[in-house]
Predict the 3D structure of the following.
Amino acid sequence: MMLEILILGVLIYIILEYNGSISTNKFVMDNSDLFKKLKEKDFEFYAKAKYGDSVDVEKLFNVRLRNGLLVILMMVFLFITDLNYANILFCLIAGYGVFKLSYLQLKKYYKSHLHKIDLMLPYYLKNLEILVQHYTVPVALGKSIEEAPNIFKEGLKTLIEKINAGDSTINPYMEFAKEYPVRDSMRMMRLLFRLSLGSNERKQEQLLTFSRNISSLQQKAREARYKERLEKMESKTMVMLVTTGVGVMVLLVISILMMFTAT
């Protein structure tokens, strides 16, 4: 009975949505100020980290809201014959869970890719080092955006905007490092800040220090990649050995059983 009510409710919703009697998207847009309070502070960062700068963050957020509301509506139809405070609360929790799910997936994606960011950072910094030899640090940062990995681009734009707005402190550099909390990001941003303050006489010396640190990071990244390949090869070898061992055991058991049945 409950399944029939749910199917009927879904059909009614589709018909009303199709003929324009109701509009979930319009409801979300009309109440956007209220729903924005549910938007996580770091949602935009995680969305752009996964999909790039071209992603429509508002559209993505509205899709989350719509999915959550639809789940609430479907759950209400499911419990329509036994609607009480407990069931209503359950419907709201289910809808909120669906709403939060995509955010948690984006967050998980970012955390799972921190290692990848860790490996990409030294090569981005190497490109930046070449630019710093010919331009000031703010200009070099601006020119590096085009070749930077997508995940760094939003943070770089924010960093440059703060520097261009007149913030000559280390804060913009540290905020960038905190946004990408990978190995040695803090130290490299401090070195970059000192390089931006250095006079022409000291620039070459500071560049050498910066270059040595980048080379060290690249070496660590190469070692990490080599270790990953080694671990993958070891795991494949282990799987092959286990599979072979299990196969041999199965054949041995079968042969023993055949011997017993023969006698």
About this structure: The two ends are 60 Å apart (CA to CA). The CA atoms of residues 159 and 175 lie 8 Å apart. The chain has two domains: 2-112, 116-225. Residues 116-225 form one domain.
